[in-house]
Amino acid sequence: LRWVPGHQDIAGNEQADCEAKLAAAGDSSSIRLLPPALRQPLPVSLAKAKQVYNKELEQRAAERWRASARGRKFQRVDPAIPSSRY
């Protein structure tokens, strides 16, 4: 494996590197300077949406369990019930 100066001495490369570092650090462009396609919010990831939905269902199920008569009885026996692994 050997280093090859592929982008060395290419006009604008240093500026692009500088801009990339600023963006990675959280500094972003003014929305007016962005192309129209990038001014809109990014689409939601389907995987993330499912993750959030499942987490909400899990929390609601745990709340219902703790509010039930059986849940209150089991709470005295094992406070870890309901398990997060179901």
UniProtKB/TrEMBL annotation:
InterPro entries: RNaseH-like_sf, RNaseH_domain, RNaseH_sf
Gene3D superfamilies in the cross-refs: Ribonuclease H-like superfamily/Ribonuclease H (3.30.420.10)
All copies of domain RNase H type-1, residue ranges: 1-25
SUPFAM superfamilies reported for this sequence: Ribonuclease H-like
One Gene Ontology molecular-function label: nucleic acid binding
Name this protein carries in UniProt: RNase H type-1 domain-containing protein
